[in-house]
Specification:
mainly alpha
């Protein structure tokens, strides 16, 4: 791995971490597109790399701790979603690695577009 790649990866991590802490997004919205665009990874490799990256930070959860200290975490909701998030992640990844990557990219793009429209409309 060359120095340029390391600098790009460090930059992606910093920006994604900052945006994640700021507005709660990072993996799918920042890291996956950045790995595809700047590093040239396939969609599946970018998604897998992004998911693997979150194993350690989520375990330490320093960003969540800041929100916890200010009373901004609903632990009941988090634990309920955790139960199905693991299953959903497993099933989604099984599908994503077994279908054409161009279809996955299109699904991803439509998802981002719908989120953007929702945010812009303010509804």
């Amino acid at each position: 791995m060359d120095t340029n790649t390391i600098i790009i990866l460090l930059s992606i991590g910093l920006v994604a971490g900052f945006i994640s802490g700021l507005v709660g997004v990072g993996g799918g919205v920042i890291i996956v597109p950045a790995l595809v665009y700047f590093i040239g990874m396939s969609q599946a490799s970018a998604q897998g790399t992004s998911l693997a990256l979150f194993c350690i930070p989520i375990s330490f959860a320093l960003a969540a701790y800041n929100y916890h200290q200010t009373g901004n975490i609903n632990w009941t909701y988090s634990l309920i979603m955790l139960v199905t998030f693991v299953a959903g992640g497993f099933l989604g990844s099984k599908l994503a690695v077994n279908i054409d990557q161009n279809i996955v990219k299109k699904i991803f793009g439509v998802f981002l577009l719908l989120v953007a429209i929702k945010l812009i409309s303010g509804k």
